Every structure is written in structure tokens, then in C-alpha cells.
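Task: sequence design from structure.
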């Protein structure tokens, strides 16, 4: 993971191998394991990027823990105000290893992921 980020011209922090005990709720405990890294602070405009590799995803991504009383099941898009959407989009594309970008206006770039999109827009006084 870290080598791939460096190859894309990014500056990841050292990878941390972490674990913690997890109460499974049935009287049993298990250790969840994961590896994490972040990019150097302030390297991506409008965002701090965090990478997490779940070593034991079956212990964390459990259907009984994914139901919410508010009915939310996921997000489909995110809008971020940045000073220079085009320059920021180049960094986001490298950070996520994607190339699908749409320039909709002079001050807006949309990054398309498989089930999500990120809109980078120049700061304005009007709401998004």
C-alpha cells in the first residue's frame, strides 16, 4: 500500500499494524486486526486521507452492526470546497488511483468512483 502511494508521487506516513479486542456481543471476544496509514498532513486540499486495510473484515463488517435507526445505508456523493478544483482533482485522482474525471464548469470537477462521486468546487458564498 505505502509503496503504491509513493509511486503515485504521494507522501504516506509509516504504516501502523494495529489490533484491539472486540466484544462480539455473544459472550465471546476476538482480536480485530488492521493496517493503517495517512498521507502527510495538508497534502490533499479539503481532506485528510486515511487508508485502512482490514485484516479481519469478517469481525468488523457484520450485518447486525450495519443497521441504523435513521435508515441510512450509505452515501452516494460528497462535495468539497477547494480553492483550485482542477489542481485538487489531480491529487485526489492519485490518492484514490482513479482516472475518471469530469469538468462540469470552470470551477467544478467531479471524480467518479464505482458507487460514489466527489465534487470539488471552488469556494463560493452560495450553498452547494
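Answer:
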Amino acid at each position: 500500500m505505502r509503496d503504491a502511494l509513493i509511486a503515485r508521487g504521494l507522501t504516506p506516513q509509516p504504516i501502523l499494524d494495529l489490533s484491539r479486542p472486540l466484544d462480539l456481543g455473544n459472550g465471546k471476544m476476538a482480536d480485530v486486526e488492521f493496517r493503517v496509514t495517512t498521507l502527510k498532513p495538508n497534502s490533499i486540499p479539503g481532506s485528510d486521507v486515511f487508508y485502512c486495510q482490514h485484516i479481519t473484515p469478517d469481525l468488523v463488517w457484520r450485518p447486525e452492526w450495519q443497521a441504523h435507526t435513521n435508515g441510512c445505508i450509505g452515501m452516494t456523493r460528497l462535495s468539497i470546497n477547494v480553492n483550485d478544483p482542477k489542481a485538487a482533482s489531480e491529487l485526489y485522482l492519485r490518492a484514490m488511483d482513479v482516472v475518471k474525471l469530469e469538468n462540469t464548469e470552470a470551477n467544478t470537477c467531479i471524480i467518479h468512483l464505482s458507487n460514489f462521486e466527489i465534487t470539488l468546487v471552488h469556494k463560493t458564498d452560495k450553498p452547494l
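The chain has a mean pLDDT of 89.
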